[in-house]
Design a protein that fits this description.
With 451 residues, the protein is mainly beta. It contains seven helices and 27 strands.
Amino acid sequence: MCFGAIFATGGFRSILRSIVGADRSANRWKLIPAQKRIKRITPTGEIMLMQSGALRAIAAAASLSLFTASGSEAMDASEPSQAARGAAQIERFAEYWTGAFSNELQVASEHNSLDPDYPEAIRLNRDIRVYRLEAPAIGDTVLYLEEIKMDQPDKAHRQRVMTFVWHEDLGAIEVQQLFFSAELAYDRPFLPPEEVAEMRREDFAQAPGCNLFFAWDEERQRFKGGMRPRLCEYEHPVSGPVYAEFDMILDRDRLWYRDRSIKIADGSIRGEIDGFSWLRFDRLSREPVLGGGDRISREQMLRRMPVMARMEGVWEGEFRRVDARGELIEAVPSRVIVRFLPDGEAYDYHQVNITRPGEDGEQRVESQGKWDVDRLRFSNARLNGWAQDLASDPSGLTSVFRMMFTDGSGLTVSEIVSLSDDGKRRMRATQYIRDGRIARRTLIDEKRVPQ
């Protein structure tokens, strides 16, 4: 896989308007909710969100601009200093980059229009989440990125922390990439943003040659940049020395990137994403996790997971529970009701499992869930979990569920669900795992019944 990398301006008077305190708790750096970030108003009346790092830089610039004099006259307060101009550019870049993005529209369009032999026709759905952290031990303005490929939804394909430096002589922002390991590994376990915010800069590996440089394009109202040519060199475990090429464009609601690596020995391509063509990501939300006003509509949610959308309805069948050796424990009649709720409801998803285990009478478990960027998250009285269509299945008939019991037992659940071509039957295989060993399994065969 290629060594990819990831990565605003008002007048001086506007910088000094409307300053409020940043949200910080003693000795613990944390995420700042959007509604609590520092606000300022641009000359056009636009309200921009700021955090304390950017504020400190602007405040310092304000002091210099007000009190540096030429002869007996102070500098014209309408002219922003270099530091203020740089802080404003960094703030705009961070605002544009923070949030949730997906390339699903590009993937759907190309799957419908291109010959399967084209590299673009094999694009995978990818989602990007970029969190803004309050982490002075790392930097003034800090972003944390996780990119997820839909064929590996339980890992972060890319995982980066970014800090920013303004270069007045270049008119550009340098994005300093901080890596979680010196090997610059891909496909790592997810890390909660709160944990990342508590780290220090020296906890990360750095590769200065792999930093990114972005300049603002006033005409197109976007940032454009990438890596400097042939500076991002590293040792690939199979191909030996290589260097990376990475370009990116970022505007308020979209980003594009392309990524590849070249063998230094002979100049041949070691690896590239989709033929080194541009991947386009559209913004889903201003926040990395959807919620409140950012929740997508029922129609959009069902479009993002077409397999699960076909599973809405009432299913009847049998739960066959077996032990770790595969011996039958019990066979229990079941009825499962799956609903995707109308817009405006407190939840997006509701499921009821009804079983009748022998003489114990009816047992009923209700789960409720909300859509979260790239998957459906749900919970009930016993467990928390998420569900997602299996993007790498060419049949388009498979979804996966991952669940964790909340009783402290350490029991996790992995389930794969297969739908018949006509949508009238589904087959489910559920594995219960503790300490890396199988505890039991449940096999479920169901048929759709009239509602």
